[in-house]
Amino acid sequence: MGHPRPIDINRAYDGRSALARRDDESFVEFVAERGTALLRTAQLLCGARTDAEDLLQTALEKAYRHWGRMKPDANPEPYVRKILVNLSVSRARRWRVLREVQMATPPETPTASETGTVELRGVLIEELKRLGPRQRAVLVLRYWEDMSEAETATMLGCSVGTVKSQAARGLARLRERMGKSAQAAASRG
Amino acid sequence: MDDLENELRQAMAEHVTGVSAPGTLAGEARHRHQRTVRRRATIAVAAAGVVVAIAVIPTYQAIRTQPVSAPGPAGRHTGGGGATTATPALPSQSASPGIRSASPSTSPSAPVHSGTKPSRHPSTGTHVAVPGSVKALLGYLPAGIDPGESCQGGHTGARRTTTCRWTGPAGWIEVRLVRDDALKGPADLGFAPPVTEHAKVHGHAALRAAGGPAVGQVMWIERSGLGVWVGVAPTLGTQLMRVAEGVRID
């Protein structure tokens, strides 16, 4: 976090400009600098590490295709991040039949212990993975990327109201599931 | 609400701790892009090839091939989409200098009466026509044979015969179309040489000269009432069956 993040994503890409095009070297520099942050976002969006790498590679390939037409003075990260989010949502829709995001490891049942806080976070992540792709994207962008509601709405191509409602529903769902998990753990303990 | 949001932030931060992008990420993305470009180019080339195969080649053949065809008694037409379907190849028109045609005397004489005027067509294609709405296509001409032919028609009683001849430095080719309702087998054509062997032309039983001066002839009944005789010069003996298979009767 803490990376530069212009609000207007569309300013990063200008298909009409033929002047001062970006080159391969700037692409390599960008990926070396921001690759890890993008991979972390991808992992939160899609769950598994392998899926995250594949998702990020696909997003970078799409960005590379139009890299030369991006304004050299604009930050390309929002553009790449938008591709990433759209890819994760569309891919999750394609796999909707699974209802849940593929996980690298099977979900563990939380148990009561002294390190209850750590386990609570693990359960939170598992429950986050179970959310719908759009709700998950909203929560990741709002609470991981620290984007405002307006920025999130721009990124997802929806209204601010939709972002608000999706975030509220996502959090409510997490809270509900967390409550059930806590009750189950208490009954086992 | 704030507690849950903070916990979610912490949970996400912990979840991705230790995640770092491989150093080859940019290179892999570029290679992936290049593979995509190559794949698209391959698909485009393949699609273009299919389009060419489907549209251009038949058109080219329709324009460029000069089938030995005729619309029947109404005359001949040079080239045409419909006539090319039965034409396997464009006959080569290159002549080999120094090779002269063999003596026509090796071909049996046909019972042809000069009932119609012999015709000579230009070298853009030739046809064999039998009076009575029968037309023949000669789809293969060996190298050294001129596509222009000389035709004669005649009749003896109920039998009508058209004989056409192609010549060139490599030798000669003669095709006879015989229309007679009494024709039952190749031997009924009356051109059968003394020594024959069985063969097949267009799936029909045929008689082929097996030795002697008459080698280079084959005859068959194309359909009821229509017989075909094909003879070639000894120099073209090896191409007899190919010439015969190239004959198409409409």
Estimated radius of gyration of chain B: 32 Å
Unreliable spans of chain A: 1-7, 14-20
Largest interface: A-B, 39 and 27 residues
CATH top level of the largest domain in chain A? Mainly Alpha
Task: Provide a concise account of the structure shown.
By secondary structure, chain A is mostly helical.
Describe this structure in words.
The complex is a heterodimer of chains A (189) and B (250). Chain A has 189 residues and is an all-alpha fold. Chain A has seven helices and no strands. Chain A folds into two domains: 105 residues, Rna Polymerase Sigma Factor, Chain: A (Orthogonal Bundle), CATH 1.10.1740; 83 residues, Orthogonal Bundle (Arc Repressor Mutant, subunit A). The longest helix of chain A is centred in the C-terminal third of the chain and has 29 residues. Chain A is elongated. The N terminus of chain A is likely disordered. Chain B has one domain. In chain B, strand 5 and strand 6 form a beta hairpin. Chain B is of the alpha+beta class. The radius of gyration of chain B is 32 Å and the shape is rod-shaped. The termini of chain B are far apart. An eight-stranded antiparallel beta sheet of chain B has the order 1-4-5-6-10-9-8-7, covered by helices on one side. A three-stranded antiparallel beta sheet of chain B has the order 2-3-11. The longest helix of chain B is centred in the first third of the chain and has 40 residues. Chains A and B meet through helix 1, helix 2, helix 4, helix 5 and helix 7 of A and helix 1 and helix 2 of B.
